[in-house]
């Protein structure tokens, strides 16, 4: 531990405060959503789809396409997940195999 | 009571992938925390109170450098800014959830969000309790995984390199599920393209906020066409 216990606890509180703020803010801002606020309704309908797209990019943000692996392990693993998930439709299987393939590629093939 | 138990039974199968994911991810987090000298108690407290994987991973760097709470707060706001999106998406779903609402909002992390937007409770199951149990189970899994990792980390050592890919895999699977159930792929494509473009322009450290602004802007531009087509579709049905 680099920090003291009190300092660590303050960091936990800061993280909690930051997280709670981002989670509660929309509900506070739109506390009385007019039922006919079609713009917010529209965003609520389409944003879930855009957000998952964003999250995939967010997860892959540190992939270095000019680095030693050129992003090949990530690309292979994602293709595996997509093919497997279209074929078997089993989320756990797709996630497990995809992660396994990625770890093998990273630790053994692209060592 | 019976009603709650039924809701729990209906919710549980949907959360199994998250159980697997959070056991992995949480364990990786616990192992990492342990390697920095933070015992299982600290790891459990972090996971219980913060319940935000990526922010907790990022925060490890704040625990191993000079004490800077303001920086930690700002970084958390940045990393978790995507939760604003989740909230807006859930305004309607969480509208009539009563006393469960504060906890539902508190527990709205990436995985809980993606489950609650994609799964529907079977007939006869109370929707609010169904969503509550999805949130509660996922919260529990995250704490469980972290504790497991904290304990494992102090006993054995193994190569966890690449294990964090489980989070990416979960989002790819959610993306495929959404793609298959939606006819209109524009929102999904807009999400990916805007993020990629912003990542290239602003770099990995600064692209989150620009991506969110760009996504909202582009979706707003496409709204006209969406509304028109929806009306057309509704007219056809009638």
- State the major sheet of chain A: none
Helix percent of chain A reads over 70%
Proportion of β residues of chain B?
Answer: under 5%
Largest sheet of chain B: none
Q: How far is the first residue's CA from the last residue's CA of chain B? A: 42 Å
- Assign the structural class of chain A, choosing from mainly alpha, mainly beta, alpha/beta, alpha+beta, or little secondary structure: mainly alpha
Low-confidence stretches of chain B: none
Structure in words:
The complex is a heterodimer of chains A (111) and B (238). Chain A has 111 residues and is an all-alpha fold. Chain A has a domain at 62-111. Chain A is built from 4 helices and no strands. Chain A is flat and about 50 Å long. The model of chain A has no long low-confidence stretch (mean pLDDT 87). Chain B has 238 residues and is mostly helical. Chain B has 2 domains: 2-180, no CATH class; 182-238, no CATH class. Chain B is built from 11 helices and no strands. Chain B starts with a helix and ends with a helix. Chains A and B meet through helix 1, helix 2, helix 3 and helix 4 of A and helix 1, helix 2, helix 3, helix 4 and helix 5 of B.
Describe what is shown at a glance.
The complex is a heterodimer of chains A (111) and B (238). Chain A contains four helices and no strands.
Distinctive features:
heterodimer, A: 111 residues, mainly alpha, 4 helices, 0% strand, flat, B: 238 residues, 2 domains, 11 helices
């Amino acid at each position: 531990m680099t920090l003291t216990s009190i300092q660590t606890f303050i960091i936990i509180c800061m993280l909690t405060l930051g997280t709670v703020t981002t989670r509660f803010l929309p509900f506070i801002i739109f506390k009385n959503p007019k039922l006919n606020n079609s713009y917010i309704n529209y965003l609520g309908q389409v944003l879930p789809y855009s957000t998952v797209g964003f999250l995939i990019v967010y997860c892959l943000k540190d992939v270095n396409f000019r680095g030693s692996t050129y992003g090949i392990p990530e690309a292979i693993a994602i293709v595996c997940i997509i093919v497997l998930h279209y074929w078997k439709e089993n989320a756990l299987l797709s996630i497990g195999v995809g992660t396994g393939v990625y770890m093998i590629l990273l630790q053994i093939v692209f060592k | 009571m019976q009603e709650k138990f039924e809701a729990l039974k209906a919710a549980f199968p949907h959360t199994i992938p998250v159980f697997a994911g959070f056991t992995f991810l949480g364990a990786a987090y616990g192992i990492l925390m342990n390697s920095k000298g933070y015992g299982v108690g600290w790891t459990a407290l972090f996971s219980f109170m913060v319940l935000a994987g990526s922010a907790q991973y990022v925060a490890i760097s704040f625990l191993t450098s000079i004490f800077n709470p303001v920086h930690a707060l700002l970084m958390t706001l940045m990393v978790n800014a995507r939760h604003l999106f989740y909230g807006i998406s859930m305004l309607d779903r969480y509208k009539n959830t009563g006393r469960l609402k504060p906890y539902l909002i508190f527990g709205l992390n990436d995985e809980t969000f993606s489950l609650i937007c994609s799964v529907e409770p079977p007939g006869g199951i109370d929707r609010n309790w169904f969503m509550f149990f999805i949130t509660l189970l996922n919260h529990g899994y995250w704490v469980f995984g972290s504790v497991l990792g904290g304990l494992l980390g102090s006993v054995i050592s193994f190569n966890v390199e690449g294990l964090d890919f489980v989070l990416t895999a979960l989002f790819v699977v959610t993306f495929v599920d959404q793609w298959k159930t939606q006819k209109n792929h524009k929102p999904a494509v807009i999400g990916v393209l805007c993020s990629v473009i912003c990542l290239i322009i602003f770099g990995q450290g600064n692209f989150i906020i620009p991506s969110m602004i760009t996504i909202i802007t582009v979706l707003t531009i496409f709204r006209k066409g969406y509304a028109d087509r929806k009306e057309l579709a509704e007219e056809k049905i009638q």
